[in-house]
Structure formats: structure tokens, C-alpha cells
Amino acid sequence: MKLYFSPGACSLASHIALCETGAKFDLEQVDNKTKKTKSGADFWQINPRGYVPVIELDDGQRITENPAVLEYIADQHACAGLVPPCGSIDRYRVVEWLTFVGTELHKNFGPMFRDTTPEEYKKICKENLAKRYAYLDKHFATHKYLHGEKLSVADIYMFVVSNWLKRFEMDMAQWPNVKKWWDSIAARPKVQEAMKAEGLIK
């Protein structure tokens, strides 16, 4: 299996999930600006949508889109417990959270990465994010994780997008329960392993 990634991008969630499961995988870095891989391949030919993550299976098939990639990784290594069994109500709760992270958090961060986005619109994105994190702060006042008593792929995805708060001068400390949750994820050895591999921490 090969993971196409860009350092610190949402593909970090897939990288962390692979580390947490103990899966065997190769890494191929992608330059988001040139759309070239480190080995010189044209990334548009790998994913016509032009963004990471992409996992390439041993038979050559590729899977894109973070929730799909994360669920695939977790299902192939069920013993790691990163996602509940298919068909269970707990599975759908984790899918709910994956969707929330993708549509309510990730989607609001997206426009702020682009230089062409008007400042007024970036302000609206920040306001939307602040509302979502205020909601999450209440959730984490009584919950250790997004759902259940174990880390899930939804937590991993949210951890990665929440790393972007500081880039846009949004202090996580204003949501102390979120910060406590984030710190607990950041301290996990496999999380640190993935972040070190991407050059994000020493």
C-alpha cells in the first residue's frame, strides 16, 4: 500500500491511521503547487481531482477522499479498533462525526488557505469555525473522544484539521476542553511518529 501525502495536509490523518494500525505502507510526497510527486510523477494522473490523500493498493486500485480512505484503513486492520463494526449504531455515530469534521470544519478551513479568498469571506469562515469549536468544547466537557471510549478515525481527522487553527491565528486555548482533547491525541506515540515523518515536529 502507498499513501500519497503532503506534509501537514489532511492526508496526515491517513498517515496517522496507518501508523496506529501497524499497517505496512510506503509514502510518496506530493507538491501541492506543482502537482508533482517526489519521484517526479504527474499527480493529476494519480488523482484527477488534484488533492491528497490517495492510497494506492497493492493491486493498483486507488481510493481518495479522507473519510473513505480512513474507513478503508480502519476496516482492513479492525483489531486496532479505530472504527466500530459495520452495521452497528456506533459505526454510524463515527460516520456522523467524520461527516461533521469534513463539512463543518475542513470545509471552512479550505477558503482560508487560498490567497484569492476575500478577507471578508475569511472572517466569515473563522466565525463559522468558532461556533463549531464552541459546540465541540461542550461535547468534550463530558466525552473523552468524539464517540465512545476509544480513539476513532473521526478523532484523528479532527486532530489534523485542528492543527490548522494556529496557522490562522485562532487560539485553541479559548476552548479548553478541545485543547485537552487535542493534547491527549498529540501525545500518542504513533501520532508523533507520523508527524515526525512529515517533518512537522522534531
List keywords for this structure.
202 residues, alpha+beta, Glutaredoxin, Glutathione S-transferase Yfyf (Class Pi), Chain A, domain 2, five-stranded mixed beta sheet, 5 strands
Overview of the molecule:
The chain is an alpha+beta fold. The protein folds into two domains: 87 residues, Glutaredoxin (3-Layer(aba) Sandwich), CATH 3.40.30; 100 residues, Glutathione S-transferase Yfyf (Class Pi), Chain A, domain 2, CATH 1.20.1050. 49% of the residues lie in helices and 9% in strands. Strands 3-2-1-4-5 form a five-stranded mixed beta sheet. A hairpin with a 5-residue loop joins strand 4 and strand 5. Helix 1 packs across helix 6. The protein is globular.
Indicate the low-confidence ranges by residue numbers.
Answer: none
Helix/strand order, N-terminal first: EHEEHEEHHHHHH
CATH topology of the largest domain: Glutathione S-transferase Yfyf (Class Pi), Chain A, domain 2
Count up the helices.
8
Q: How many separate domains make up the residues?
A: 2
The CATH top-level class label of the largest domain = Mainly Alpha
Write down how many β-strands occur, each being a DSSP E stretch of 2 or more residues: 5
User: In what order do the strands lie side by side in the largest sheet?
Assistant: 3-2-1-4-5
Task: Compute the CA-based radius of gyration.
Answer: 17 Å
